[in-house]
Amino acid sequence: MGAIERPLSAWERLTSVTAVRRIFVLVLLVVAWQAYSVPLNNPLMFPTFTASAVAFWDALINGSLLLKAWVSISVLLMGYAAGVAIAALLTTLAVSTRFGNDLLATLTAMFNPLPAIALLPLALLWFGLGNGSLIFVLIHAVLWPLSLNTHSGFMAVPDTLRMAGRNYGLSGLRYVFKILMPAAFPSILSGLKIAWAFAWRTLIAAELVFGVSSGSGGLGWFIYENKNELEIAYVFAGLGTVIIIGLLVENVVFRTIEEKTVRKWGMQS
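The chain above was modelled as a monomer; its predicted structure follows.
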């Protein structure tokens, strides 16, 4: 006689939800922040969570936080899209020809270890103070990790799938899009997420250096300005906005794509 499964308690059902567990972690971090900062009583060094929350709300409602966030996101999307397009061309060439494979291997070995922010002085010389320089360093931040992940995914496609595609007469772009890309999509998605994280932190760092583009600075410039004015609670509000946007992109955009693709296809548990 089989064992009778005990129904889960309300607490067990609640803690089995990933979102609930992660929210609990965030609450613990907020409590630790408040517990440390209140006795410290030094708002110029480490403001309390409540002071930072008030500053965030004020900058959101009465300030320019939304505009700053939009400036950063719009530049990021341009650089990210350009980087993805170039990575697609390079990896398609790499899986189609020996020269393309050697070209990608050489370029990634040369440029992947190079921090994108290190190219900022050259970008300023070549493109001036504005979006062009930011987009250039963003392309560098996106291109190499995405190309590496995509190419690794292509190389891991089973030979049986490759032969099936060849038997159907597929070649060139049709072979890449119909055989390689669906099979390698988990690696491609992982590369997209890594490239997004690299691009986001590169953009904020670049804005902290020179920040103002198209007449308005982004989130990095918001943080820099408030640091100079010793409005440290607003600095934390800017940092919190960077984190919130990162969490939303990771847990809404990429998780939705993952649920609709690789998990639905049974390629990932």
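The first strand starts at residue 212 and ends at 213.
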